[in-house]
Amino acid sequence: MSWNLSRVVVENLGGILGRRSFEFKSTVNYIKGASAAGKTSLVRAIVWGLTGAWGLKGDYQVKMGNEADLSTLLNRGSKQGSIEIAIDKKDKTLVIKREIIRRGATCKLGRCELKIISDKSEEIIQGFQQVNDKLKSELEIPYLDLAYHIIFNGEHDLLLTVLPEGATLRNYLATCFGISRYEKAWSYLGEVERDLRREYEDYRDKAEERKEASVLLEDRQRLIEKLNSERTEKMRELNDIKSQLDSMSSQLRKLDELHNQITSLEKRINDKLSRLREIMFKIQARDEDSRKERSVIEKLNKQLQDVNQHLERNRRDLNNLVDNISNLEIERNSIRKELDELIGRRDHVEEELRLLKELRERKDRLTQLESEIRNLKSELSGMQRRYHECELELKMKNKNLSKKQAALLAIENVFSWIADSPSACPVCKRAWDEELRVRSIERLNPERRRYESEVRKLKENVNTLEKELAALDNEIRDINNRISRLEWEREHQKQELSELERKMTHRAIEELNGELISLKQEIRVKTERLKEIESNLANLNAQKVELEEEIRRLERDKVGIESEIAHSHRNLERYISEISRLRLDQQAIEHEVSDLQQRLEVIRSGYDLEKHQTLMNNYQRLIKDETRLRTEVTRIEKDLETYSREVEEIRDQALEYKMFREKAAKYGDAVRLMEFVRGVIRGVAETLRDEIREIVSEDVLNFLHALGFNRIERVEIDERYRIKVQLDGIELNLDTLCEGIRNAIGIGMKLSSAKFQNFIPRLICLDGCLRLDPSKIRALIDLLMKMGVTNILITEREVTPRIRIASD
């Protein structure tokens, strides 16, 4: 089913900055614009939007997704770019949206979405791979990377000029024609062959190892029988020791119980005696602490009385000081108010004096400006008269110079006419009379020298006058500028003078100066008195601060002493209560110690320490023997387990010997088969490489004839993949052909690969690669449409400010 490109919206891709929308017609569309307008960027954006591919790797494989060089596709100054492509099919519309996002120095894929719109429903597919899979089926493109190779041509010709660094025509054609797929399969099968060979060698080695399994199995079974008899003997000895230990353990439990009771009672008695000593020591310590607290309370009461006396005296002094400060502040505020009024009157008088002086200065400056303007206008009038005189003289000199130059040119033409035809007249072709020719030249020579001298003098005079006119013009312009500046300053001075006269009073300078002196004297007296008051206030405030700080310190001391007295009273009460409690505990502990000593004497009468020790030593000796036997039994059992496990493993290996030998034989057959298949695939790839040259040569020749290049008799790609063309019986290299034929050959190669792959694309972009006559372009378009291409985009350079889409 055919489809048509209808609309493309590009934002910040390549040379297109900002958001641009383009409408496309069916079949042929011409993308026209000036150089660097963004034509190729539009084509590249369409390539990326349809396939998600951009650029080739070093092995001529297409870069897809985030592997593509997105930084060259996104506009350098942009953080984000996108493309939206609308494609119309018979019963639906496809809208493809792809985004690129710049993160620091790298570019990553952003949102990728395909919207399928029909009359009945709307389907949205998201994700790079999901969109590409859907596009393959909807646009009938079996391989998107194949579409990148054969649909789009780069500027002039992708095949010949826009290839990765180090590319060759041989390898590139192999990729276009699918031969690289055979070579990839050959390389992949090589890896499979290596894996099969490793498996074959592994099974062969395992089969060899299984041959020794029977000998090792017999040895391990003999060791197991020996260890079983040794374990039986050790178990008999262990049972005898267990019976002796059981008989001793009942006697030891009784003696241990008596010993534990004696030890427990002795420990309890010692603990009680130790506790009794601690209580007596604490009683003595608390008596001493009580005496110390009473002494401290007496000292603190005396300190509290002294602090109260000092505090009362300082409060009286502070009240007197506050009254003095209040009186001085009232006087200071009154003097400040009077001083502010005097300063305001002084500033007003000084402002009147300043305005009066400025008025006189501006009148003097205005008179000076009037004089300067008159002088400059007089000088300007003289210069203008001189400029007009020089201008008239220059016109007359130029007129004379033109006449003299015309006469000199006529004489020079005669001389050149005679010099160019020294033997005969160039008009009538008759031979010269040599005497007449020499006489004519002698007669014209003085005239020529005279005219040359006059022309040279006139040119000097003209140059001198032109320089003088230029100097006069500069001076006149300079004087006009100076007059304009002075006139502007004069008007400005008049305005300011009028403003000053409006502000001025009518008092004389002597009256203002006398009032100013009187005000300054009065201000100085008030200022000195104010400084004196400020100094007294500062001293009094400092004394006030010191007294307040002293009062706060005494109050803190008072609170601290009262707190210490209360704390000492609480400690004294706590010590008395603790002494009473400790004396009660002392009496109770003495009673308990007496009872425990009586019980200890009763238990000691029924306990034999020597018998207990002998029985304990014998019991420990038997325990050691039992431990030794258990260790040996454990060792034997561990060896038995190890040998039994080895026997099981060896028995399995003996059974696996035949199986491993059969698998090794199978993998050997697989390796030989893989070698054969790889040889076949490699032979196919090499055969196809040879056939490429014949297929491309024939297809390109037919393509050139279809476009009208009938003078080309043969196109051949030799063994070194150099393109040879026979034109009118002459064999030529590719670089000697015209640009149109070279681009046509490149397009023909791409179409040949498309036909070979049985995949004719619906969309072909010819980006800057058509350098053909209009008739040949029409023949190419007709040929592409016959092949099933429904969308053809052609970029053309045109001196227009922006890109525009023109239909055929």
Describe this structure in words.
The protein is of the alpha+beta class and 808 residues long. It has a domain of 221 residues: Rossmann fold (3-Layer(aba) Sandwich). 72% of the residues lie in helices and 13% in strands. Strands 2-1-6-7-8-9 form a six-stranded antiparallel beta sheet. Strands 10-14-15-3-16 form a five-stranded mixed beta sheet, with helices on both faces. Helix 7 packs antiparallel against helix 9 and helix 7 packs parallel to helix 10. The longest helix has 208 residues. The protein starts with a strand and ends with a strand. The relative contact order is 0.13.
Structure summary:
The chain is α+β, with helices and mostly antiparallel strands. It has 12 helices and 16 strands.
Q: What's the helix and strand layout?
A:
Layout: E1 4-13, E2 16-23, E3 27-33, H1 39-51, E4 53-56, E5 62-64, H2 70-73, E6 80-88, E7 92-103, E8 106-118, E9 122-126, H3 128-138, H4 144-151, E10 152-153, H5 169-176, H6 179-210, H7 213-420, H8 434-503, H9 509-604, H10 609-707, E11 712-717, E12 723-727, E13 730-733, H11 739-756, E14 763-767, H12 774-786, E15 791-797, E16 804-807
Parallel strand pairs: 3-15, 10-14, 14-15
Antiparallel strand pairs: 1-2, 1-6, 3-16, 4-5, 6-7, 7-8, 8-9, 11-12, 12-13
Helix pairs in contact: 6-10, 7-8, 7-9, 7-10, 10-11
